[in-house]
Specification:
This protein is α/β, with parallel strands linked by helices. It contains 15 helices and 15 strands. The strands form two sheets. The protein has a nine-stranded mixed sheet with strand order 13-12-11-7-10-9-8-14-15. A six-stranded parallel sheet has the order 3-2-1-4-5-6, with helices on both faces. The relative contact order is 0.16.
Amino acid sequence: MRKDFMPPSSATLANRRTFLAGAGAVGGSLLVTPSILSAQSRGDKVNIALIGIGGRGKDVAKDLSATGLVNVVALCDTEMGHPRTADVMAMFPKARQFKDFRQMFDKAGREFDAVSVSTPDFSHFPIAMQAMSMGKHIYCEKPMGQSFRQIQLMMDAAARYRIVSQMGNQGHSGAGYFQFREWVKAGIIRNVTQITAFMNSPRRWHGKQVSDFLPVQPIPDFLDWDAWQATAAPHPFNSGYLAGDWRSWFDYGDGALGDWGAHIFDNAHEFLQLGLPTEVESTKIEGMSRFLFPQASTLVFRFPKRGTMPPLELSWYEGQQNLPPLPANFGASVVDPNIPPPTSGTIETKRLAPGKVIYGEGLTFKGGSHSSELEILGPAGKAMAGKLPPTPAYASSHAGNFLKSVMGQERCHSSFAIAGPLCQTMALGNIAQRLNAKFSFNPKTRRITNNRVADALLDGSKPRPGWEQYYRL
């Protein structure tokens, strides 16, 4: 750990690092940060800063506030004051306001114990790294980071700084999570060899064709474009990147897989102990582009044997016409009524809603996304009705689970240690999409072994000049 490093505009980080150096010298004892102590001393409230309060950030702000467990002391958004941020500003009129997260940590860092990060995918990483290095607990929307390397560094930082972390795949604290856990314990879900996961709703890049990045436009007064770009590869401003349209671009987003994978196969990934695949294959790409995610894609992830569990093949289908093969008795889609509305496009529910089919020993299961519970297909499902273990009662929402974990009352369901390998699996899928490739991956060395171009993409794009330091925290 470098002792001479200080991120730009962040004098408080130096104090934090000095504290850590002293604490680490005390015989390897448990690191108790000032954040943990101050949160516990208040008992019933956690002081928090909300970073990213437009779009999805507005929903996260509402979720956190609804718990009654937060005191929002700071708001940060690169569009602070724009109508997109107005609702959250009105919700917390006494909170200090910032456009640049670096200034927020510098000027208000001592006033909060935790942060939520609801910014575009590509900027999760630097914000999270600075927060964790200062001992701040973190609630971060999915996916954790944009590249395989970023996600690994975030996992390592969460362990090193001993903070509480939660990724915002909200269904991981809902009924489907607890049901899946209990059905695996009871041996109902066992010896799974195949999972088919699908997301066939319209995406904002569907129908788009580009031959380059968007042309330069004047930067509007309401936007801090430098802070918005964060560590990403620099591009001239164009309004076509804002308000969620960043998700279409390889340089900024993670596509349909990064957006929805963590809502569809997250429970299977955790409770079937999938870890990282040994092979990833793109078997179908439509509308391949150097810049945008494809119009349709089929990916296959192959996971090795895990203990007594057999090898497993996970197939991913996206694209409006790229429908997956389904059992003849699949029936109607499983739809979670609590799925938040998309910022653009629609979520298909009439034809085939986002979901999955899980093929286990003797039983086939169908499910949806988020908190939806699994159903057992065919006569076996009817025969087992009334004999299945009940879904355990639960009181905390995903946001509440995070906040109570900060207070020492619960344990996060989707900590970075749990969510990290899930997100890294999706990052590998994004590489296969980008190259339309098949490659082998070594989970021990965490390298792609037979494709040098793909292996180089594990690191993501080169950090923007002046932002390299976040990779060294």
